[in-house]
């Protein structure tokens, strides 16, 4: 069956567990062990917004599994610059590739692309919408470096525009995690999302003060305040740099705390923290490879049997 | 069924005596519209000052069931199902009577559909459905309370629904 990966809401918790389990099997290949699992397959990457980690980790995942990657290249040099619709681009590229990874600035772009594609669409971020592969690698990192059961996690930063956070909070609610949301007032999680999460049975509390909760949490998930999502630069300036994780702050941390960040960071985590035992953001970034390998294998294997 | 003298194109007899609006020969009568929504119903149906249909509107008519209600009569036009769906968004208790030769030949209560396509505009300006892409807007519908969720961007419309009509 043709299976698109658009939103975390498309996955049951059983399916997520299967993906996380499979990803573990791919770790060795992600570290360099030879594989030809996707030999002869072609992955197309269409990034209408800048990306480093997501694009390169998909490429790495595909190549380490023996497959090939074709890339749209810079948008300003592509047919989109000539006014081609995304729908048309998808209808062309789906004839060239066995799966398409799409990042687009518009919310809902991946869902729409799926309507026009006969090969799996993997959403690599649609505006302020979903970013399910990031969420899956976040869950995988927590599973590998901490634990998904009885989890107490604080999510810090831009909870309004940050797409990773919305998907992550939704997924964590499936694991009955206790979530503490920390953000300035202007960047609080939108009510509609909180309402959805509560309907899902999520345990959520909110605070503006990061210090108060440092001793109570297993995971500190830090996000960048994204300048590009602010309609007004003055609004951005008001909140930029409001939270900063430092060695000083970590004095209050529990022994087994881990710190995660989807990267890129700006100044929300002091580089001195990188040397502490708490830092896991570079491991997290690596885990994107085995998780995306799993998804590529699932998408293309599933597609073969359609 | 011949429309009898006491019905006069309405179902609860509220216009029986005195006849605020005269019966129509052919067309559609929308009864039990939430009071104050008649003009929005016309908007939904695409009836404006530039259309030629003969339209009668009664607003804030006393009604046993609703307290007060609006009624719209449109001559020589029989509403199609998708148009009926649209009416239900702003007037959930409305009833539609199709009239031929002064008789009510079909009568039904409007019902919110599970899904709405091409009726509303998503109010997220950054939604892919608000671009030149070849897609129509699509929403899943929650009935109580009425909430429309864009299937593309997940944005929810729960207030000012009439303002989002295409």
Topology, pairings included?
The complex is a heterodimer of chains A (306) and B (166).
Chain A: H1 13-30, E1 42-47, H2 53-64, E2 68-71, H3 86-93, E3 99-104, H4 109-115, E4 121-126, H5 132-145, E5 152-156, H6 163-174, E6 178-182, H7 191-199, E7 203-207, E8 219-222, H8 233-239, H9 247-250, E9 258-260, H10 281-304
Parallel strand pairs in A: 1-2, 1-3, 3-4, 5-6, 5-8, 6-7, 8-9
Chain B: E1 27-34, H1 38-44, E2 55-63, E3 67-75, H2 81-90, E4 95-100, E5 103-109, E6 115-117, E7 138-142, E8 147-150, E9 156-157
Antiparallel strand pairs in B: 1-3, 1-4, 2-3, 4-5, 6-7, 7-8, 8-9
Short précis:
The complex is a heterodimer of chains A (306) and B (166). Chain A is of the alpha/beta class.
CATH class of the largest domain in chain B: Alpha Beta
Question: Overall pLDDT of chain A, averaged?
Answer: 92
Which percent band covers the strand fraction of chain A? Answer: 5-15%
Task: Sketch the major β-sheet of chain B.
Answer: 5 strands, antiparallel
CATH level-4 homologous superfamily of the largest domain in chain A:
Aspartate/ornithine carbamoyltransferase
Largest sheet of chain A: 5 strands, parallel
Strand order of the largest sheet of chain B: 2-3-1-4-5
Mind telling me the CATH superfamily name of the largest domain in chain B? Aspartate carbamoyltransferase regulatory subunit, N-terminal domain
CATH topology of the largest domain in chain A: Rossmann fold
| Biggest chain contact | A-B, 19 and 17 residues
Number of domains as seen in the coordinates of chain A: 2
Shape verdict of chain A: globular
How many β-strands of chain A, per DSSP?
A: 9
As a whole number of angstroms, the C-alpha radius of gyration of chain B is 17 Å
| Number of DSSP-assigned strands of chain B | 9
What is the string of SSEs of chain A from the N terminus onward?
Answer: HEHEHEHEHEHEHEEHHEH
Q: Any idea of the CATH topology of the largest domain in chain B?
A: Alpha-Beta Plaits
Structural class of chain B: mainly beta
CATH architecture descriptor text of the largest domain in chain A: 3-Layer(aba) Sandwich
């Amino acid at each position: 069956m043709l299976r698109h990966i658009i939103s975390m809401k498309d996955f049951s918790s059983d399916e997520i567990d299967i993906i996380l389990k499979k990803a573990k099997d791919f770790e060795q290949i992600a570290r360099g062990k030879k594989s030809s699992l996707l030999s002869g397959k072609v992955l197309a990457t269409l990034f209408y917004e800048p990306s480093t980690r997501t694009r390169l980790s998909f490429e790495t995942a595909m190549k380490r599994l023996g497959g090939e990657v074709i890339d749209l290249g810079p948008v300003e040099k592509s047919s989109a610059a000539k006014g081609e619709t995304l729908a048309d681009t998808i209808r062309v590229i789906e004839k060239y590739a066995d799966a398409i990874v799409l990042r687009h600035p518009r919310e809902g772009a991946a869902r729409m692309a799926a309507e026009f594609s006969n090969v799996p669409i993997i959403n690599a971020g649609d505006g302020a919408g979903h970013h399910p592969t990031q969420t899956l690698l976040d869950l995988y990192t927590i599973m590998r470096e901490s634990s998904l059961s009885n989890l107490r996690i604080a999510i810090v930063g831009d909870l309004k525009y940050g797409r990773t956070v919305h998907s992550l909070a939704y997924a964590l609610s499936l694991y009955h995690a206790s979530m503490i949301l920390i953000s300035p007032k202007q960047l609080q999680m939108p009510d509609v999302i909180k309402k959805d999460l509560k309907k899902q049975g999520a345990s959520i509390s909110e605070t503006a003060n990061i210090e108060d909760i440092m001793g109570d949490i297993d995971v500190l998930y830090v996000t960048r305040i994204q300048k590009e999502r602010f309609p007004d630069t003055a609004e951005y300036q008001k909140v930029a740099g409001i939270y900063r994780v430092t060695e000083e702050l970590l004095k209050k941390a529990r022994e087994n705390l881990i710190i995660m960040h989807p990267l890129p960071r700006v100044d929300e985590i002091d580089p001195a923290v990188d040397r502490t035992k708490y830092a896991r953001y570079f491991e997290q970034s690596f885990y994107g490879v085995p998780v995306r390998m799993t998804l590529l294998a699932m998408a293309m294997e599933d597609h073969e049997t359609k | 069924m011949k429309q009898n003298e006491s019905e006069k194109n309405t179902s609860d007899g509220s216009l029986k005596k005195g006849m605020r609006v005269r019966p129509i020969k052919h067309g559609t009568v929308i009864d039990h519209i939430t009071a104050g929504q008649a003009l929005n119903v016309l908007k939904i149906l695409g009836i404006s000052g530039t259309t030629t249909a003969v339209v009668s509107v009664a607003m804030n008519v006393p009604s046993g069931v609703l307290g007060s209600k609006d009624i719209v009569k449109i001559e020589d036009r029989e509403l199609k199902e998708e148009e009926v769906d649209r009416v239900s968004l702003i007037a959930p208790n409305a009833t539609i009577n199709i009239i031929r030769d002064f008789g009510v030949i079909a009568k039904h209560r409007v019902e919110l559909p599970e899904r709405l396509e091409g009726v509303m505009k998503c109010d997220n300006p950054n939604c892919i459905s608000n671009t030149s892409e070849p897609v129509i807007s699509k929403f899943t519908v929650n009935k109580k309370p009425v909430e429309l969720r864009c299937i593309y961007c997940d944005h929810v419309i729960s207030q000012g629904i009439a303002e989002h009509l295409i």
